Amino acid sequence: MASPSPPVPQSDRAALIKAFDEARTGVRGLVESGVSSVPALFVHPDPYASAPLAPPGVSIPVVDLSLPAPLAAAAAAEAARTWGFFHLVSHHQALGVPEEYPARALAAVRAFNELPATERAAHYGRAMPAAASWRDTIQIAFGPQRPDLSRIPAVCRDEAVEWDAHATAVGRVVLELLSEGLGLGPTRLEEASCLEGRAMVCHYYPVCPEPERTMGVVPHTDPGVLTVLAQDGVGGLQVKQTDDDGGSHWVDVKPVPGALVINVGDLLQIMSNDQYKSVDHRVIMNTREEARVSIAIFFNPGKRGDSVYYGPLPELVSSDNPPKYRNFTMSEFLGAFFRRDLGSKALVDHFKL
Ligand SMILES: O=C(O)CCC(=O)C(=O)O
Ligand SMILES: [Fe+2]
Predict the structure, then answer these.
(1) ipTM score assigned to the predicted complex
(2) Which domain of life is it from (predicted)?
(3) Is the beta carbon of 238 within 6 A of some atom in ligand 1?
């Protein structure tokens, strides 16, 4: 058993971060260099303390796109109301997404992360929060501006672009179902530009020598409207489920072959006036001898002008059902997101009336 790393004083932290950044080889570089314990920068004080695990057999709902549209809409809306997460199946048949996607994109992201360190180095930037997480992430903005494709590593560029197109088709249909589930016309959320602002994040979670001392992604909600997540077969994503009596559990989102994971983000919670829920989720380190790969696409409104306001959709509020949030511009929303400290109040609370 490796000896635990001691806590890091603030002054040394800056030096450690600098050394990590300058190495330009990411967390995978640490693993390649043969670390046998989690370096202090990556240690989370008590990563698994917050809530117990759900009993085995509990899992997020499944929405099947081969169902007649009204039934699929009802299932998606029910899942968005109760869990905020669901598995989506039958998108290959229903939408013509090629069978080899997203597996090809996941494999290409893995291939990039497993290139020799010298070939990866050009792509490491820095993003070091309070306690660093055990992953390397490529982030690509696909909208509202045209993407700068040269920033995507060549070994996964075509696959990332192709997956963005297929995932956007998936996002469109899911937004249609969720609009209908609110009693609105199917294109209501798309018309609010909710498919136009897209960010793709490609995560690679290296095998970890001490999985219980760090996290892949700390508990958080996704800020945008909707997330479409593809994961490989390794697992590690968990969703927080809260019962009616307020007790909560972490539920494993076990990989389901051929399924995508869909989740509601903070903006959709707000636009739906709390009918749909944006729920906490996290990625724990697995003990398997295999690195994990996932690709999340976050759908956000593309219209960002200072005269464009977001908030509860007017059709959903009335004197009996008053708005629970005030209206705001995207620049206000993004400002609140980027200023928020880790562990501070939920993003939606900044806009609550
Ligand atoms: O890797 C995953 O399964 C989830 C990642 C995630 O939650 C995120 O990027 O927001
Ligand atoms: Fe997330």
Answers:
(1) 0.99
(2) Eukaryota
(3) no
